[in-house]
Design brief:
494 residues; alpha+beta; Aminopeptidase; 3 domains; eight-stranded mixed sheet; 25 strands; 37% strand; globular
Amino acid sequence: MNENFIAKLQTDKYLIGSFDAYIELSKELIKNNSNISDEEVDTILKSMSTTYRAAITNKTGDYIGYIGLYNVDAKNNTSSIRFEVNENLEKEDKNEVLNEFKKYLFDSLNITEIEELIYKTTEQTEIEKKELVPNSNIIIPSRFLMPGVLEEDLEKFSQEYTIPKLQLPFTIKSSDRTIGIVGLSNIIWSNKRANLNIFLDKELGDDITKELSGYIINDYINYVHNSKVHNITLSVNGSNKNMIEILKDTNMSYYGLIPFAAINGDRLESNLMFQHIPNMKKEKGIFIPENKSISLSSLNTDKKELSPKVDLGNGFKMVSPKSFEKESIDFNKILQSHITAMQNRDKFTIPLGEDKYILQKGNGNYGISKALMNYSYVILDANNDYSGYINILRSNANGKNVELEIGIDPKLQHKGLGSTVINQFYDELFSTGVASVTSAIFEFNNPSIKLHEKVAELNGIRVESYYINGKLWNMNLYSKTNNMIEKDNNSKHI
């Protein structure tokens, strides 16, 4: 088996995974099956989504073909599939590969219809086409919600807010006036979750609470659930009293906060987190902690970047991949060890949405080389052997709040290395002026939960927000606050 191949999906006989590991064999297969030129082969490859194509091997690692998407129409949840092999498959084996890949498409992209299927072998070409039936629109029973957003409204609200690319967007109307925009972002169909975004007309000030009733938001929430999104979450700045007042009369429930993850003028404040799943019940009122804020200037520091190398004791160290050459560390050796770790990762073959280890970047290592090169740190032992990694996954509030991810070699777990690594990483982040660090841990990840229980505080639980093995799991939010910030546990009920 090609050492760069990671199996993402599998059937009884075959493995489906990293396309770039076998890209040259795939090019040769296309050329032979269709008797075409190299230029025509490149045209076919360019027509397929680099994110959603995969090589196919048997269980011993012998290449047999590839499968991939083209004509992706996310708006109508449709796509087409190209499936080529170098041997004639039994009908049952062919269908197993197709069904596993189709399931991945549904879980990852919400693709529900296959417009065209091209299946090719060295001896035959099959093309199946399906007449598409447009999805029926779900009607929202509210005269205050209008599908879509006018360009002029989007331009106006964009002057006050940073608006992401919205899916399922609606305009909120009152007396023929646009008073808000609502929509989803970061939809992860495989996990059946999304972020809710509500933008209110700031010209109305406190009068917005008279114009916008909570039941209007409930109507949109029900529409979203009918559109197959199970868990939705809304992040609200702690000082946004108008939004909190509106949310009191919705079915959304407060579930936690991310400390110092939002900017309000020259201050940092908490992000309050609300969520809803179908049939969620809540008690009257919302209990939330008091909004704590600090001045941005209080976190000023002369240190602007993470240290290139941090000693952990007992021969272990955290090293930035950008310093590998200076430290005489063999990047290719570390890369292969990291790939092996991902190949052996528990539950890796379960579809996980746009997992970075199935992304195809055309660089011979299907993107994993670039990903690893941009990690914050790789953990190495005294012999410079790979022992894990720790990384900034994303950042908020101009980098004052960051979310981390960590992976420790299973052979080194339960020996205190994880606690040492994460605490040293906290110190490094805080020394550069980071206010708080967040980790999102799914409840089946017991080793990571036990680690974070030692070093951080549980700030909230996003219920039923990760779908795997036929079950919805909770997401635990842990955080650690810069020790320069004075702690205050006051709370209030509104």
